[in-house]
Design brief:
The complex is a heterodimer of chains A (319) and B (277). By secondary structure, chain A is α/β, with parallel strands linked by helices. Chain A has 13 helices and twelve strands. Chain B is an alpha/beta fold and 277 residues long. Chain B has ten helices and seven strands. The longest helix of chain B has 22 residues, at 10-31. Classes of the chains: A alpha/beta (319), B alpha/beta (277). The interface between A and B is medium-sized, with 30 and 33 residues.
Chain lengths: 319, 277
Amino acid sequence: MTLGTRAGLEMGKATRDAFGRALQEIGASNDKIIVVDGDVANSTRAEWFGKDNPERFFNVGIAESNLIGVAAGLAACGKVPVAASFAAFLLCNAYDQIRMSIAFPKMNVKLVGSHAGISIGEDGPSQMGIEDVSLACSLPGMVVMVPADEQSTRKATQQMIEHVGPTYLRVGRGDVPAVYDENVDFQIGKAITVRDGGDVTLIANGLMVSAALDAAEELAADGISARVLDMHTVKPIDQAAITSAATETKGIVVAEEHLHNGGLGSVVASTVTSTVPCKMAFVDLDDKFAYSGDGDALLQEFGLTGEKIAEEARKIVQG
Amino acid sequence: MTGNQNATDFDQLTELAKSLRKDVLIMTSEAGSGHPTSSMSAVEVMTSLYFGGIMRYDASNPSKPDRDRFILSKGHASPILYAVLAEAGYIKKDQLNTLRKIDSPLEGHPNMLRVPGVEASTGSLGQGLSMGLGHALNAKLDKLDYNVYVMMGDGEIQQGQVWEAAMAAANFNASNLVAIVDLNGYQQTGPVSSVTNPAAYAEKWKAFGWNTVEVDGHDIKATHQALVDATAYSDGPSAIIAHTKKGKGVSFLEADFSWHGRGVPKDRLEEALEEIG
């Protein structure tokens, strides 16, 4: 993983590992938590909870639609079901079930999609969740979180359980740079200013927070001061952080490991347009599926890098 | 009204079935739309369930943890569910004629957040059995003794999710789960037999590991007995294939499947009600 190198970040654990560990810890003292698995618990790390609590762990088989329905039924009885699978399978295969069995009746189900983004690499596009954030954000009442690293994912998992209502948590497969220590102040709906700056704002989530920090470092060498916002919650979006950025800096670059339409970029642009219009640029997967290959190399090929973010930021600053 | 109180009086249930059928006709006629015929095929099974002492419920406490649950997975048959919930005391009878109106909680398809006694928001076919399985598993987790009944349509079970749930329920040995297939023979554009083979339904459920019986879904005693037996079965989930007629009770509705999404026009309502008697 080359992301985060320029910013001097140390490598940390994968966000799926952080989710799995946090769920295991919370699950030990909260017997309302039930895991519903679609036969991928070893991949999502939900099996760590399952091994401790076999009576509260249901593997419904490779059947995401049924997985969602079972979770909805348990939630209707007051349980707090965690429905975990690959982001691509959960959101895409079971979308109508998420819509009608969970979002519409406001069921307190915790959706967790792992293996998000193209950085999963070799397994290829069928396994890469690249539209999950857009799909989740489209559903009324859904809270959507894309944490950047191990420590913020731990907090996101805790808050997901505490939040009453449907949530979607996106996590990734590979180890990622550690952006935060255990004292990170993570709150649903509140962006984290990872680095302050006055010339331009870089808004990112997930893995791209590390890339944005690389970009900020590169820009600093050019005398450009970049603010980096970790917009870990895409919905509800932190409107105040965005309007401050639009007011106080020359423009905003949004970076995400996701398709262009409907993701973080769309949500930030919609906020900017309806509040304080400013220049914007987008670093994302545009409108393309990826392919198999080394994950790090794919990120380079698709321009999901600090260099690309810095390039877009320079254009905004230089106007 | 609370279920499971009195010895079964089949004459009374037969009269009640007539009355519920009339409720369906009147409310959908008043609404000018809805699915009267899909509701009328389900009347005897639902009458037996709610008023024949099968289900234990307390309309004054709709979220009682150990209540029996009924999920209408074929959500378009909401008129019969509303009629039953009114008879059972969950909602007021004079609400029935507000069906599908903008200020009424009685929406075209059931909304669990707006109507007490509605256990699941349905309407997108194929989802109810999975939710029912979630409820059934909860009983085991909380060591509660309740049963979950899920009614599906024969067209509905073309949805793959139904069979995902069927496989999982058998695997989890969900003996407190009862599936009812209202085999009325028609789906929106024509006979079910033009799309799948209804004759093989029982074999399918058996093959998926369900204790399965077929029954005349308009014979009140037979439906009652099937429900008693399915409820008592303790070695896995049970399925009841109820052979019914779409639009049962009114000959001009039985004769023409194109009534699927229409209410009886007001000028033919009296004729329909008279035939039910």
